[in-house]
Amino acid sequence: MTTVVTTASATAPQPAVPRWVVLVAIWTVLIAVPFWLPLLGGYTALAGRVLVFGLAAMGLNMLLGFTGVLSFGHAAYFGLGAYGAGLTLRYLVHSTPLAMLAGTLLGGLAGTLFGLLIVRRRGVYFAMCTIAFGQLWYYLAYSWNDFTGGFDGLRDFHRAPIGFGPLTLDITSGGDKFYFFLLAIFAAAIGLMGLLVRSPFGHTLRAIRENERRARFLGIPVERQIWLSFSISCFFTALAGTLYALLNNFADPLALHYSLSGYFVVMCVMGGMRTFWGPLVGAAVFVSLQDYISSMTVNWMSFVGATFVLVVLFFPRGLLGMRQLRGQS
Amino acid sequence: MTQVILFNVTNGLIIGAFYVLMALGLSLILNLSNVINFAHGNFLALGGYLAFTLSPTLGYWGALLVSPLLTALIGLIVERLMIRRVYNRDPVYSLLLTFGFAFVMQDFARFVWGPNGLPLGLPDFLAQPISAELFFITWYRVFMVAVVIVTVTGLFAFLRYTRVGLRIRAGTLDLETVASLGVNVRLLRTFNFSVGCMLAGLSGVLAAGQIGLNPNMGDDLLMPSFIAIIVGGVGSLMGTLFGGLLIGMAAALTTVFYPSASEAVIYAIMMLVLLLRPRGLMGEEGMMS
Amino acid sequence: MSKLSTSVGRRTILKAGVALGASQVIGAPFVIRALGEEPVKIGMVNPLTGVLSALAQSEVDGAKYAEAEINKKGGILGRQVQLLVEDSANDVGTGVQKTRKLIDRDKVDVIFGDVNSGIAYAMSQVTNDKKVFHIVPGGHTDPITGSNCKWNVFRVCNTTTMDANAVTPELVKRFGKKWFFITPDYAYGHTLQDAFVKALKKVGGTFEGDMLPINNTDFSATLIKAKGYKPNVLLNNMGGLTQINCMKQFTQFGMQKDMALGGALFELESIKGCPPDAQTGWWTMEWWWNQPKVPEVVKFVADFRAATKKTPSARDWFGYVSMHTVRLAAAKAKSLEGPKLAVALEGMELPPDVALQPGKVAYRAGDHELMPNIFVGDVHPAKAKDDYFTVAELVPGEQAAGSVEDTGCKMTHPA
Q: How far is B283 from chain C (nearest CA, A)?
């Protein structure tokens, strides 16, 4: 009994503010982005990128933050989602929903199958395998010229307008309309994720994170839960990948590279691995930071790298995680 | 026909030897400290660049000797300042740390030496083929293999016959017990990390003679090192040795028949190993769980 | 309890950092408005980090040099010019995002970019959508002014077809028709080899070749194959650092005794990275600095060297030409609107102090490709400072490019 209580309080801070207020605040901010972001010197496409990466990072966080298992190769599923969507739009059918479905399935299934192979490993070795697996897809994408466009990426596909019976949602021109489309998909995905996290399944994941051995003693099928968590996180990340392809009308091999995987991990850590919204905050900070600094100097890589180092050494709990620390001790 | 066969074998060994040197350094650090050194490729580049800077004053041979030692020194400083702090934490932190540091190092190299490719001058006699018949084997390649053999033998001998080497090997298996036996584990880890970086630096000097210098040179060599370790088996240096040679041979052989796939084949081997023998060819069960 | 105080310390740092960052971001637009008249803004997106950084940086240098020159002489349409440079980091997502940033937030009038053809293409989709004038200074794949040509996109550098067609007759004349190709396995390599093969077949030549991974470092297997085939010429189509390695291994194996070496591009930046015995072969240059007979070039090189302490390469020239192109097109169109600039530029000839070479250099109306001369010659160790190349022949671009139909471009203009 005590275990469950401690676990619960480790993830949900003593709310000084009721949860529904927080949610309303968050969604108001997100919906109003096209209005307030340009005033701050931002631009709506930047927010779109934040949403896409934020979704990918939140997907990763199901595995990393909630189950306590590190994957450093999640960009593979992100990229597979992007390529799946792009290939569908280019070769099969001009339908955005089908493209998104195809991409999500491609990334998700690849992750599910791979998860089976490595589920018995842990820690650093698990991470190494995920990195290497991700790079496999990267090489595949950039060598298979005829199919994937190779090094130059997959092009010649466009977002297609979505038909809802008599209504058509025309997202081809990008801009604010596309941002709201992204937000809608994001909301649906996050809603689903929230349900999963709060379900009994989600609780078993947290139990595994806190103390694997004890979870095993409690009868939780640890390997199976980890595999499921891995698989689900890959599906969410792949969905984010399909949105990325739609955002750029392009899919390129770098969306599969381990450096992008690293960015996702940093977003989770920077925002707070153990919180639900942490990765989105981390994504917002990271994307804005990178965007801003790379306009200032060619040496932006040093700053970004230094940020990683600083986060690891001084802010390991992340931005939202620090709020928790206050409420705990 | 003989030429083709001979070529396959020698080229595979040469490429493999090179992968081995890189992977061994990475493996040493991984085994003892449980840290994946993402910056390993950058230490390689650093070694090469230092040799470039030193060779006007020290000559090629001087640079070859001094540069790896300097790289080891820099590795030591890095370990003391940063890596040390994340040893007993969740692996995510050590990965992020070395990953971030790799960015900084790459930018530093570009900043100091410029984005252009730079050549590393070799002594004339090394750049010659060993015979007209075997024109594709230059003395430099033979030299590279010789250096690798000497270094690897030295490394294994060191680990086998010296006290420090014994402690490192013991620490790989059970660090807590080694610590409770009174060994200064901190110093051991620092030393181990430096040795790993030294091997990376040496690889860098060797690579620079072959492919020249550029800030991104380490990136392409990092992944084959990972794969060599996975294929050979985590926790086993012999496994890493074997894994490196295996993938080197495979890459060389594939280039003859189907050049575009020469990189993909090492991934295929990795997947095969993960499917059929997940602990690696020479790994021990439970090493990395 | 000490834990709490540390976390407070961290939080203060964080808050300060956020405040500082916010002030920079919020403050910026107000600062610019206070400066008075709005400058003409040109946004350049190039891979300043990554494997193409050396070439990208040269293009930026050339453009910045032109920016200073233009501003000294009164600017564009009487307004000062401001060049905003963004790093695409050799990543499409970043390149597209920066393009959107430059257009949406910074409100640039013109976009330049990218050296990486894939990114250039993705950017052109955005610029086309938003009707912004777009010049590609140095991205080579043919479709940009071929099957994927767009009314708002113009290109300065050559197509692979042009380079291949320019150098083939010279190589055939000097060495022979039996060739061996070493080509990188991606779009640029494919189109280049196809162009060479087409040109070679026209003169009845024969060939064999290998397609290698882009980052291939070891060429022994391929070079052995080449030696066995006994060609007249070895065509090194690799790019960047892989090209240098291929050259090095070629000379290390002593193969220059058995066959000649040639290809399309061997850029000044790459030549400098080679050891002297690998600085060899017959190549094309898209622009070369050493043209003693053309007074404008002599002056340009002297001024450029004085200002930047380096000798201008073709890439510097691309950046330089791109900036001046905007000035000239704007002057002719008397506007900075995309459609008007595009119409003004079609068929426009560059004046000698911008073209910096003999003959007529103009943007072809049918496909928006610049038609300069292609400098064919041989590379050798430097005779004087940076003098690595001796021009044997100047091939007019139009002659090497083939017709507009051949490129596959079907230009559609906005209503």
A: 30
The pLDDT score that the predictor gives to residue B213 is 86
For residue A69, what is the DSSP state? -
- Distance, in Å, from the CA atom of A126 to the CA atom of A290, rounded to the nearest integer, reads 29
- What's the rounded Cα separation, in Å, for the pair C167 and B240? 48
**C102/A contact by beta carbon, under 8 A:** no
Contact C216 B259 (CB under 8 A): yes
- Chain C positions touching A37 (Cβ under 8 A) are none
* A135/B267 Cβ within 8 A: yes
What is the architecture, at CATH level 2, of domain C38-158+286-371? 3-Layer(aba) Sandwich (3.40)
Segment A44-73 mean pLDDT: 92
pLDDT for A322 equals 76
- Taking CA atoms, what residue in A is nearest to C125? A249
Multiple choice CATH, C161-285, 1.10.155.10, 1.10.10.10, 3.40.50.2300, 3.40.50.1980: 3.40.50.2300
- Give me the residue label for tokens 């929903």: A97
Local structure of residue C183 (DSSP, 8 states): E
Q: Name the nearest CA neighbour of B124 among A203, A164, C276, A162.
A: C276
Nearest CA in chain B to A263: B96
Q: Is pLDDT above 70 for A324?
A: no
Answer yes or no: is pLDDT of C6 > 80: no
Q: What is the mean pLDDT of residues C256-261?
A: 90
**Boundaries of every domain in chain C:** 38-158+286-371, 161-285
Q: Tell me how far CA of residue C307 lies from CA of A120, A192, C300, in angstroms.
A: 62, 60, 10
Mean pLDDT check: name the lowest of A14-18, A281-285, A294-298, C50-54.
Answer: A14-18
Cα C144 from Cα C127, distance rounded (Å): 13
In chain B, what are the domain boundaries? 24-220
Provide the pLDDT for residue C28. Answer: 46
Residue B102 touches chain A, beta carbons under 8 Å: yes
Query: Which one-letter amino acid corresponds to residue A123?
Result: G
pLDDT classification of C2: cutoffs 50, 70, 90: very low
Predicted TM-score of the model (pTM): 0.87
Identify whether the C-beta of residue C157 lies closer than 8 Å to the C-beta of residue C318: yes
Nearest to A271 by CA among A261, A262, A282: A282
pLDDT value of residue C1: 41
The chain A residue lying nearest C105, using CA atoms, is A43
Contact A129 B263 (CB under 8 A): no
Kindly report the nearest CA distance between residue B239 and chain C, in angstroms: 25
- Fold agreement (C38-158+286-371, C161-285): yes
For chain C, say whether A43 makes contact (Cβ under 8 Å). Answer: yes
pLDDT band at A132 (very low <50, low <70, confident <90, very high): confident
How far, in Å, CA of A329 to CA of A267, rounded? 25
Contacting residues for C136 by C-beta, under 8 A, at least 6 apart = C112, C113, C114, C120, C124, C144, C153, C154, C155, C156, C157
Contacts of C231 (CB under 8 A, 6+ apart): C176, C178, C179, C180, C207, C208, C259
In this structure, chain B runs to a length of: 289
Q: Across the B/C interface, how many CB contacts are shorter than 8 Å? A: 90
Residue B42, classed as helix, strand or coil, is: helix
Confidence of residue C31 (pLDDT cuts 50, 70, 90): very low
For residue A169, list its beta bridge partners: A162
**A103-120 tens-digit pLDDT:** 999 999 999 999 988 887
Q: What size, in residues, is chain C?
A: 415
**Residue of chain B whose Cα is closest to the Cα of A116:** B275
Condensed to tens digits (0 to 9), the pLDDT of residues C214-257 reads 778 788 888 888 888 899 999 999 987 788 888 888 888 888 88
How many C-beta atoms surround the C-beta of residue B281 within 10 A?
17
Q: How many residues does chain A have?
A: 329
Helix (H, G, I), strand (E, B) or coil at B129: strand
Q: What is the ipTM of this complex?
A: 0.85
